[in-house]
TrEMBL record:
Residues 1-13 have a biased composition (Low complexity). Residues 1-26 are annotated as: Disordered. It comes from the Eukaryota. Residues 15-24 have a biased composition (Basic and acidic residues). This is Uncharacterized protein. The lineage of its organism: Eukaryota, Metazoa, Ecdysozoa, Arthropoda, Crustacea.
Length: 226
């Protein structure tokens, strides 16, 4: 290769690097703006405006949704269906295991009036400068110890949890009447447990399915009592 060829290649490579850098910077910019918008609306208590904003995002839009804020994009009907399912068992509170930022949990609380507690792990990450914003106070649990027992006065929920074995431990210890699992039924996103994993398992009976999107399902279970 002579000098001018190698120069041309390195100039092409740097153009490529620059384009990649520009896309990354633009995506980072969108993400920051979206987070700022949602934080501002949260501070003003504008839950319905957040849901309207969420509904403007689809996979094909140029400005992408930020899954670190929340893996699903719920609408008011999803939250109403969830709350009705909880209240049908005469309870009005839930624990969300692996709540992440707690955006979904705050929206449930603000829109339906259910009381919501969010469990998370890794306090040092969530209090670091790299973490996304949080929307409810997080209750940190010890990842090395057996999971805490979710009170029977609360429904047990997870949204896009990623450890079926640990979730099974939460369910085994739980003595309450309602289980809610949100996750993927198609697409390439990992979710474990799957929303329908508890169909006819132990004393659980599937009593609600509500589609959040073509990929995401909310499954609700009530405990069958004799
Ligand atoms: C894929 S994220 C989903 C976050 C959020 N629910 C959402 O839908 O955006 C799974 C979350 O579960 C949390 N997690 C993992 N193991 C956990 C455990 N043993 N107890 C509570 N949370 C846990 C992780 O830290 C992570 O934030």
């Amino acid at each position: 290769m002579n000098f001018s060829e190698s120069d041309a290649i390195s100039s092409d490579a740097s153009e490529g690097d620059k384009a990649e850098h520009d896309v990354a910077a633009e995506t980072e910019g969108w993400r920051t703006t979206l987070r700022e918008e949602i934080v501002a609306l949260h501070q003003k208590g504008e839950a319905y405006t957040i849901l309207s904003l969420v509904s403007t995002f689809t996979e094909n839009k140029t400005r992408p949704w930020d899954p670190l804020l929340l893996w699903v994009q719920p609408q008011p009907c999803c939250l109403s269906a969830l709350a009705a399912h909880v209240r049908a068992a005469n309870i009005s509170a839930l624990v969300s295991v692996g709540c992440g930022t707690g955006l979904l949990e705050w929206l449930i609380q603000a829109i339906t009036g259910l009381s919501v507690v969010g469990y998370e792990v890794n306090a040092s990450w969530w209090t670091s400068k790299y973490a996304p914003p949080t929307f409810i106070p997080l209750t940190f649990v010890d990842q090395e110890a057996p999971p805490p027992k979710v009170p029977h006065t609360h429904a047990l929920m997870c949204c896009y949890f990623n450890n079926a074995k640990v979730f099974r431990q939460y369910v085994s210890a739980y003595e309450g009447p309602v289980l809610l699992i949100i996750g993927a039924t198609s697409g390439d996103r990992h979710t474990d447990p799957h929303p329908l994993d508890y169909v006819d398992r132990d004393t659980w009976r599937l009593t609600l399915t509500h589609r959040i999107s073509t990929h995401d399902l909310l499954a609700g279970y009530h405990r069958q009592t004799r």
